[in-house]
Amino acid sequence: MLTIGVGSAYEFAHEHEHEEEEEEPLIHADEGFAVRNIVHGRFATEIGGAQWGVSGLHGENHFGRNTYVVGADVSRDVTLGGKDASFSAEVNYRKVEGVEEDSGENHNFYETSVALAMGYALTDDLNSHARMEWISGSDTADLDERVRLSTNLSHYHELSDQLDGMTRLQYNADFLPGGESESTVWLQYVIEFGH
């Protein structure tokens, strides 16, 4: 199956107010996201019971330059112990054509990421999901290499004939260079209209 999308993303204002002694990175990583004139394509097919896919994205970033993302993924749904389970792996590569604000000098940066994930249906209404992701980082964009481990529990329930709800509790552990780590916990509630 081939899918193609075009469009633009909503932009938030980005202010560059920092303390005088704070060292300013050459470019800001969040300015590398494609926001205008985005073209996205994905090709997916089933081979050997698994879903294989390749995708690519091109768009204009906050610098008025190009951002490119290419990726490949594989996933498979199986039954374990009579319960539904899923496994997936993906690799992505991002190139951002950037420019330093003061000098106007080009400063491109590149990032690679690899992710492995597993989902498991504990009951008909309760699912668990775990994901591990490594991201290479970039000195140019002041992005550290990092590893994130995430796990969540999601509970699905029917509110009415045309209304469903989902509650998700998620824990993230980010491991940064120098032995530093950060933990976050999220609680999310989603209401879905229609079926």
In short:
The protein is mostly beta strands and 195 residues long. It contains no helices and ten strands. Strand 2 (36-47) and strand 3 (50-60) form a beta hairpin.
Share of helix, binned: under 10%
The coarse silhouette is globular
Range of strand content: over 45%
Q: What is the CA-CA span between the terminal residues?
A: 24 Å
Q: What is the CA-atom radius of gyration, in angstroms? A: 20 Å
What structural class is derived from the secondary structure elements?
A: mainly beta
What would CATH call the homologous superfamily?
Porin
Defining traits:
mainly beta; 63% strand; 195 residues; Porin
Structure description:
The chain is mostly beta strands. The chain has one domain: Porin. It is 0% helix and 63% strand. The protein contains no helices and ten strands. The chain has strands spanning 2-7, 36-47, 50-60, 66-80, 83-96, 109-121, 126-135, 146-160, 163-175, 181-193. Strands 1-2-3-4-5-6-7-8-9-10 form a ten-stranded antiparallel sheet, with no helix packed on it. It is globular, with a radius of gyration of 20 Å. Residues 13-30 have low confidence and may be disordered.
